[in-house]
Design brief:
The protein is mainly alpha-helical. The chain is about 55% helix and about 0% strand.
Length: about 170
């Protein structure tokens, strides 16, 4: 005897059938703790940027060397070659952005300014995601971290290539 209803077809057999998206899992306590720690760490970096003085004695914005206020040595690459390294100006751009000077932050190091702006967004995102127990706007933290890291490294290297080309032919 045959059944009155047709068998349920598999997605491959029924092109109009869409699988339901997986439910986003609720975060474990340690993931939430790590998000809070990330927020605190990034906030600390931004706070240091705000506490530094990225202006010279004439109150003109600097382009690099702000890290020297932290007791760090001069850039070895710059000292040896006279050319900036890929990260020259990062600290200055962070500090200028924290001093509400985005134009000069971009001049110091555009990728550093973008990274600083990204960090400004990461702090509340991390806290909100930890509080909510689910990532805000993303499905996979691992994929977001890897994508962001690759994007910033590529941007940093492209910017460095442009800076070196301008130094050579400019």
């Amino acid at each position: 005897m045959e059944s009155a209803s047709a068998p349920i077809s598999e997605p491959e057999e029924n092109p109009g059938f869409e699988e339901l998206p997986e439910a986003l899992p609720y975060m474990a306590w340690w993931v939430r703790l790590n998000l809070v720690l990330v927020a605190l760490g990034v906030a600390a970096v931004l706070t240091v940027g705000a506490l530094l003085h990225p202006y010279d004695e004439n109150n003109e914005p600097m382009r690099q060397e702000t890290h020297r206020q932290l007791g760090l040595p001069a850039c070895s690459f710059y000292a040896m070659t006279g050319l900036p390294c890929p990260s020259c100006g990062f600290t200055t751009s962070f500090s200028l952005l924290m001093h509400a000077d985005p134009v000069n932050s971009l001049r110091a190091n555009a990728v550093g300014a973008l990274l600083a702006a990204f960090c400004v967004v990461v702090v509340p995102w991390s806290v909100f995601s930890a509080w909510r127990g689910r990532y805000l706007l993303i499905r996979s933290a691992e994929k977001a971290i890897i994508t962001s890291l690759i994007a910033f490294v590529v941007l940093m290297l492209v910017r460095w290539g442009v800076v070196l080309a301008v130094a050579k032919w400019g």
